[in-house]
Amino acid sequence: MTGAYNVYENKSPDSRYLYHYYLSIDERKLLKPIYTGLRKVIQQDRFLRVRTPQPPEPEQKQIARFLDWKTAQINKFIRNKRRLIELLKEQKQNIINHAVTRGLDPNVKLKPSGVEWIGDIPEHWEIIKLRNLLKPVSTRNRPDLPLLSIVREKGVIVRDVDDLEENHNFIPDDLSNYKVVLKGQFAMNKMKAWQGSYGISEFDGIVSPAYIVFDMLGKVQPEFFHFAIRSKAYVPFFTKASDGVRIGQWDLSIPRMKEIPFFIPTPDEQDEIVSFIKEQHTAIDQAITRAQREIELMREYRTRLISDVVTGQVDVRGIEVPEVADEELLALEEDAADADDVIDDEGEMDETD
Question: Measured between alpha carbons, how far is 189 from 181 in angstroms, rounded to an integer?
Fold first, then answer.
């Protein structure tokens, strides 16, 4: 491993007990008092002065077995809830994908779309190239407007400039060259368009000068366009129109993007589709929120349980503990590594320089 890490020989009778103990104090941020410097480093000599409780060896082994057993059960619950969240998110995408390519009438007459992965579309829908729907604009010198960013999961969002974790990319002092995005305009990170990093803005703000901003030409309802263009039906078009050798930074060809076809229902159908998607998503979002909350509660319970057991506040000496399989032990570390990833996040933050 990297030379920035420290490696220690374990002299405790049971390494699993020591693992649970230090996992517990880490999750409760109890090492903060010995942080030093701007990077919050823990110096080796200070760390080695930390006092660690040492129960008798049989009790350490019992504590480790008990916590392996209980945390394996908790982590299994969390993994199942994560899978449920992913399935619900996929269901949301499937609802959008079907609605924006087939409409809401199951009996409508169809015609070939001319695109293999889309298949047939309603016969009366119009097919228009993006060049006839979008007009590039470039207004600048509005540093008074809020800073926006464009992410894969949500499209255009307001950037929290006070969040150090979110703002790992450089923000210049002079924002006069940043591009203005108005509510209802379409904005895109062309280096990550192949991932779906674009969308209709709900806000007035400014974005990196490397981004592209478009006016909508009025032939399609903006909310319908937002749902459709970010769906699984349309993202592959942007992937095919992007090239590059640097992983994660494929440059979108604007001339090829302009040739992407867009399938347009009647204005009334667009409104109906948008209303249908929102209604369906409301129920799914409520289910996702419940699952997220259950994960948070179980993590809180796990943290409290480990803390109480390794500090002796809960006596587990007389409890019969079944064997925990090796793959379940591995899952303990996997979940600890992903402890902050309840729903994924919302996609990685894009470059702003």
Answer: 13
Q: Does domain 60-124+266-353 have CATH number 1.10.287.1120?
A: yes
Do 313 and 155 meet the contact criterion of CB atoms below 8 Å apart? Answer: no
The CATH number for 126-264, chosen from 3.90.220.20, 3.40.50.2020, 3.30.70.260, 3.90.1150.10, is: 3.90.220.20
pTM of the model as a whole: 0.79
Task: Name the H helices within the chain.
Answer: 15-27, 44-47, 57-102, 222-229, 235-240, 254-258, 267-310, 326-337
Q: Tokens at residue 239, please? A: 């992937």
Domain ranges for the chain, please list them. 60-124+266-353, 126-264
- Chain centroid to Cα 218, Å, comes to 32
Q: Which of 110, 115, 74 shows the shortest CA–CA distance to 303?
A: 74
Q: Phi, psi at residue 152, to the nearest 5°? A: -65, -45
Per-residue pLDDT of the chain (353 residues; tens, 9 = 90+): 888 888 998 888 899 999 999 989 988 888 899 998 888 888 899 999 888 889 999 999 999 999 999 999 999 999 999 999 999 999 999 999 999 999 999 999 999 999 999 999 999 999 999 999 999 999 999 999 999 999 888 899 998 766 555 544 667 788 899 999 999 999 999 899 999 999 999 999 999 999 999 999 988 999 999 999 999 999 999 999 998 877 667 889 999 999 999 999 999 999 999 999 999 999 999 999 999 999 999 999 999 999 999 999 999 999 999 887 767 666 655 555 454 443 333 334 444 43
CA-CA distance, 259 to 237, in Å (whole number)? 10
